[in-house]
Structures are given as structure tokens and as C-alpha cells.
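hey m, so remember when u said the C-alpha cells were messed up on ur end? i reran from scratch. heres the input so u can diff it against urs
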Amino acid sequence: MTDTLALLPAGIDTYRQPVVYMHEDCHICRAEGFAAQTRVRIDLRDRWVIATLNVVGRAGWLTADSAALSVSAWSALLARPGDRARFSHPEPALSTSRIRAKAYGERLSEADFASIIGDTLEHRLTDLELAAFITACAGERLADAETVALTRAMQAAGETLDWGGRTVLDKHCVGGLPGNRTTPLVVAIVAAAGELIPKTSSRAITSPAGTADTMEVMAPVTLDERALRRVVEAEGGCVIWGGALNLSPADDHFIQIERPLNFDSTGQMVASVLSKKAAAGSTHVLIDIPVGATAKVRSAEAADALVARFLQVSAPIGLRLAVHLSDGSAPVGRGIGPALEASDVLAVLRREADAPNDLREKALDLAGKLLDLAPGSVPGTGHARAVEMLDSGSAEAKFLAICSAQGGFTEPARAPHRVEIPAQSDGTISSIDNRVIARIAKLAGAPRQKVAGVQLVAQVGDRVCKGQPLYEIHAASPGEAAWARSYAERHADVFLIAEGPR
């Protein structure tokens, strides 16, 4: 068959982007006019995928009568070595006209957004076209009605969990604050109080840890819907990775474009968050917005705009929503990185004497506000209920039961390589740069290496002497420890120290 090639697994992880590798002398490349970065439709049995072409020279690893597929393309086709697939030009993406319309300032409808999302999920749009869409929606270019339409279209593109009309509580932090691992604590407290809180969380994209990364240190998080329901019906809550559930699946594609562009788009952030909350079947949602000079939301004005958009969009999609503005001036807790954050969570649950008090108090604030949000609650009593659940040990017991139901509890491991970073002068710590300390944790290997990250020794307001440790770099290998240390030594101002006597 002249229009087919034998398939090989390339073993190359291109995340969600299907990629096909073909030899420069391939007869199909020549006959079809395929060139590097061409979009190619690949048909195998009853499945198909649209992939981006990379052309391979005469390097010897790929023959002219075969094609190699990236991990995502291989999985999408359910391919087996030796399969022969058919290659052709895909139909043009119809939604490109709507992207152009948005770029020129037109308002888009829910049907327009649904068309763009559909083409995104079928990989009909190139990264350049997706970047054009993200750019056209950036800043304040999405009106409130468009944000509602985008949210609904994103939710409709995937599954929506149905909890039979029951009240389902949920919380979300917009991010930008290292540590701050309140979610496992809030879930344990709220579930211990008898409320339903099936929490689906994300993995890190640019941060040292996402909630799913931290939770995975202590229990399995990759559960399908059947397993999710089993855990929630047994324990009232869970903390799992949402990526296995097909909830608002276009969001991950958009995030991959948004992060490198570093756009601050209120409308897109709100649509991303609320589409996933609605898809998870949540009915009552608390949004945590840390505000600080080095957080994601850096000013009171930006926070006010974000709060207004959340409130304007939540009601039309059927969510009862409350917003909590929190202090984003410095990291929360001591650990930054999956295992270190997990240790902080456990220290708070176990009521250990040296548990990070800022993490405890923030978790209690959030859990209390979420309990107050539940129908039938007595306003203002949520915080006291949260304290009772934590101090009595009920939250710890519930958390361990949730871990057991998800597949079993594991104590966090410790990094074999640690490097202390000392203070360069005497004085009082006046601030910690969230972005720089997060960068150091990532250079140490987080979140890929679960034990890697940064352990804070000193915090804002502490008095330190020159040479006293400010923080420790934790790494899984000496090379990563040295790499992070080199960066840290070039950024000694991550901790600002007001010199002189108190």
C-alpha cells in the first residue's frame, strides 16, 4: 500500500502534542508535499490523530518506509509495532476564522468557543494558532459574557461528574505562592466535619509542586471516575489528580501556551478555574487569592478585578462562590517541593509542636470559610468547627482514611543531598522573593524529583546573624544540589535583610 508506512514507537515524550517523525526520503513525504511542521493526519484501523511532522535526515535510526510516533501519538492510536498506518493532509481547521475574528476585536459566542476547543482537542490547530487565540483573549479582551461562554464551552468539551443533587464543597487557590499546601488539610478538615469534598487537583506546570504532586508523595492520585466515587462515598473526600478524569480537557492545552507567553488574562484564568469546578460537580466553591509583590496577583487593584470576574461568571454557570484574599507576601509553610510540603501537611495534622503555624492558620481560615458556605451552616461558626476537627485528631484520622482508600499511605522520603544557604549579614528578614525561592526549588529538581526543593529555616520577621542558615536546598543528586546552589549564590537577595539592631 503506497500510502501507508510501518509504525515505530519513538519513545519521545512531547506531552499532549502528537508528533510524527518521517525520513526525508520517504515517498509519502515527497508525494504529499509534507515538510517539517506540516500537520499530518494518521489513520490506523478505526482511530486517527493529527500530528506535527518532524523530518529526520540520513541519521540511520529511521528508514524511508517507516514512521516513528511520539508517546502521545502512539497512545492515541493504540498502535502496535509493525502496524501500518495511512497518512494524508487533514481538513483545514474551521475555527481559524473565529480566531482571526477575535484578533480583530469581535465578540465570540459559546458556539465559536466550542469550535475552537473542538479543533484544539483534535490537534487541528498549531501552537502558533493557539498562541494567536490566547493572545487575542489576553488582558481584558474577554467580556463577562464571553468569559461565561468560554467557561461553558470548556466544561462541555469533557465529562461532568454528577453527585445526585448533593452539596459538593470545593476550594481553589489561584497560585503563585510557594509552599501554601492547604488543600490536603482543608479536605481532611471538611470531610471530618461531615461535608462532601471530592477534590481534583493539578500537577505543577511551572511551580515546584502542585497539589497532586504533593499528595502523590503520601498516596496514589491517578484514579479513574469509578475509583474516585468509591473513595468519596466511603470517606466523604479525596485529593486526586484531575488529569485522568477528562474534566475541561482543553484547559491543559491552553495552559501549555499561556505559561511561556506569561500573559495575565483575568478572563482566561476564571474560565480555566470555574470550568473545572463545574465539571467536577462542585456546588459551593471558595477561591483563595494570595496578593503580594512577588505573587501571581501583585496588587489590590488586580485582586479586585479578579474577584469581580469570578463573581460575575460563577452565578450564570450555577456555582455559589466566595473569595478569600490572603497574604501573598512570602511562602506559606517551611517546605517548597512535593515531599517537603507533604511533611508540613503531616506536621499540622499530627499537631506537632514545631508544625508551621502559618500553614495551620491559613488552612483553618479556608476550611472555616468553606464550612460557613455550606447550606444549613450557622454563619461564623465554621472556623471553630475547623479547629475542633484539627485539634481533636479527627482531621488526621480522616486524612489517613482517605489515603488508605486511594491506595495506601506512605511517609514522605528525605533528600540525600542538602546544602545550607547562610545569611550574608546581621539583621531582620523583611521579605522573601516568592519567584526566586521557587526557582531555586525547581533547579534542585522539584517537582520531578519528589524529595527535592527548599526547606525554609528562617521566615519574615526573624532576627538572623551573618552565617546563620536561611534555608536548605534539598536534592536527589549532587549535580542538582550544586546547580541550585550556584543560582542561589547569585541571588542572595532572595531574603531581604534589614541590617542593624532591632
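this time it looks ok to me. Residues 169-245+262-406 form a domain with the Pyrimidine Nucleoside Phosphorylase; Chain A, domain 2 fold (CATH 3.40.1030.10). if urs says something different then somethings off w ur setup not the seq
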